[in-house]
Fold this protein.
Amino acid sequence: MTEVATARRSRITPEREAELYAAVLDLLREVGYDALTMDAVAARTKSSKATLYRQWGGKAELVAKAVRHNKPGASAAAVDTGSLRGDFHALTKQSDDCEMEQNSALMRGLAMAIHGNPDLLKAFREHLVEPETAEFKTMLQRAIDRGEVRADNPAIEYIVHMMIGGFAARTMIDEQPPTQAFLLSYIDAVVLPALGAPVPTT
C-alpha cells in the first residue's frame, strides 16, 4: 500500500509542481490563507481537486510546501564559503530587496493564520521550521569544527530565532521592509557577536 501511495503522489512533474506552488503563493497574496480554497487552487492551475488532495492531503501542507519551495537558492546546509560570516552573507544575498519585501508581506499574513490553525502550524513546523533548524545546525557545526564558534555557546540554540527575528521585526519596528543591507548589518552587529564568531573591524 505504501508503494502505491508513493506512486500516486509522484505523478506530478517537478515543473508542474513548481507551477502549482507559484499559483498557490499568488492566491495567498491576493486573498490570504483563510480565504484560499482548494477549489480556487484547482481553478487557477487547471487541476482537479482530487489530484491536489491526493498529492498534498490538504490546504495546510500545500501552502507550507509552496512557501518552502519558494525559498531562494541553496539551503543553509549547502552554503559553505569557508567562514560563518561568509555563509550568512551568501544566504542573505540569495534574495534581492524586492523578493524580501514580497516574502515579508506573505509571511506576516501567514503568521496571523498560523495562530488560529493547528494544521497550518503543524505543516509549517514539519516543512519549514524543523528543516531550517537542522540546516542552520549543520552550518554552525562547520563553524565549530573550524574553531569560529564554541560548541557550548548558548546562542547556538537561538540561531533561527535571531535570523527570523531580524527579518520580521524590520517592518514592525522600523515600518520598512527588510533589505539586504539591513540584514547584512544585523548579522554583523547582532548574530555573529552573539555566537562569538569573528567580525571584520573595517
DSSP finds ten helices and no strands in the chain. The longest helix spans residues 118-146. The radius of gyration is 19 Å.
